[in-house]
Design goal:
This is Copper amine oxidase N-terminal domain-containing protein. The protein is 9% helix and 43% strand. By secondary structure, the chain is mainly β. The chain folds into 3 domains: 2-76, no CATH class; 98-204, Immunoglobulin-like (Sandwich); 209-358, Immunoglobulin-like, CATH 2.60.40.4070. Strands 8-9-10-14-13 form a 5-stranded antiparallel β-sheet, with no helix packed on it. A 5-stranded mixed β-sheet has the order 18-28-25-21-22, with no helix packed on it. It has a 4-stranded antiparallel β-sheet with strand order 16-24-19-17, with no helix packed on it. Helix 1 packs antiparallel against helix 2.
């Protein structure tokens, strides 16, 4: 089976190179549409592509078979990324042996394989990489997370929602049944366990979700002020299309290197949107947050949508705007000391603001 898989990968990669080569040539060519059946035989099984279903080109005596149709017939997934001003178009192809996809969720949505787990306590990011294959389409209101369990089955930490990468812009909910793609995700900082297992789950999205930052994040000037919690806006696209709702990513970050923090008081963050002259145009608020925030740059994140209107309901023109989280306070306790409730100030900082370009 390994030989067959190696052959298939080589064949697909060779066809991908052909696509890239053709894309790099800007000259116009003329080709014939040829009524031909393409039959290929793998491990005693016959596969076929018919020109009744797909277009096959004949150019200077060479037949050009559609890459997507050929790859799909082999069980591979193909993703096309349109060219940008600074890069060429890309075609990414994933072919996986199902025997490598051994980690499954209990409801039969996904299988994970080729997993690489990196634990960290200091400067590196705790990270899980691998391949995900879709057995059932993921609903838009669901996320895929991975739990790290100790030898007794106790949960040591739960990852943020897994995200496809290379191409990174394909949402999980847009993947079709049978699709496969590489993914990565981060999980809380912890020492490497002597023994551990992983569990994958498809869970319902919540108003606030866990994300993991890097412990080397700049503090002080140009970074964060206040301890242990800070509000922040980041991960939001600076350039947004005028006339479409603008997402604003709001975060509560735990800078403590000592312990997780449990926020006991429902906390609402307020975001002010101003124009380039500093004039206040609109005030937005998040859903309330209450719960646990992981240590060492662990954060809880929510997204609020700005409809690009001012407080009077008038559409704003194209230009530069600014979103800023207002200072607030809440209450909670360190997880190791649940009997001591402390006041937690969410002080403003440079990270609590973000320019928004509407173009």
């Amino acid at each position: 089976m390994a030989i067959i898989k190696k052959f298939l990968l080589g064949l697909i990669c060779g066809m991908a190179i052909l696509v890239f080569t053709a894309a790099a040539v800007s000259e116009e060519v003329r080709a014939k549409l040829t009524p031909v059946f393409v039959n290929f035989h793998v491990s005693g099984e016959q596969h076929a592509l018919s020109s009744e279903d797909t277009t096959i080109l004949n150019y200077k005596g060479s037949l050009y078979v559609p890459l997507r149709s050929f790859s799909k017939e082999l069980g591979a997934s193909v993703y096309y990324t349109a060219p940008t001003s600074s890069d060429r178009a890309q075609v990414n192809i994933y072919y996986e042996d199902d025997r490598d996809m051994s980690l499954k969720d209990k409801d039969g949505y996904v299988r994970l394989g080729n997993l690489d787990v990196r634990f960290a306590l200091d400067n590196d990011m705790p990270e899980i990489k691998g391949t995900v294959k879709i057995d059932k389409v993921i609903p838009k209101d669901r996320d895929i997370v991975i739990s790290v369990l100790d030898s007794k089955g106790n949960t040591l930490g739960v990852s943020s929602a897994i995200e496809p990468y290379d191409p990174y812009h394909v949402p999980i909910s847009q993947l079709k049944q049978g699709d496969a793609i590489n993914f990565k995700t981060y999980f809380p900082y912890m020492a490497t366990p002597e023994k551990y297992t992983l569990k994958v789950e498809v869970v319902k999205k919540t108003d606030w979700s866990y994300v993991q930052g890097h412990v080397a994040t700049v503090t002080g000037a140009g970074g964060f002020y206040g301890f242990p919690l800070n509000p922040a806006i980041y991960g939001t696209n600076h350039q947004n299309k005028w006339g479409e709702p603008t997402p604003i990513s709001v975060n509560i970050i735990n800078h403590s290197t000592i312990d997780n923090i449990i926020v006991t008081e429902p906390t609402i963050l307020t975001v002010e949107i101003s124009d380039s002259n500093g004039k206040l145009l609109r005030t937005l608020t998040t859903k309330p947050f209450k719960g646990e925030i992981q240590w060492k740059q662990g954060a809880m994140r929510t997204t609020i949508m700005w409809d690009q209107k001012d407080s009077k309901g008038k559409k704003v023109p194209k230009g530069e705007y600014h979103a800023k989280i207002l200072t607030t306070s809440t209450e909670g306790y360190y997880k190791k000391n649940p009997d001591k409730i402390v006041s937690l100030d969410l002080e403003n900082s440079m990270q609590a603001g973000m320019p928004l370009m509407l173009e």
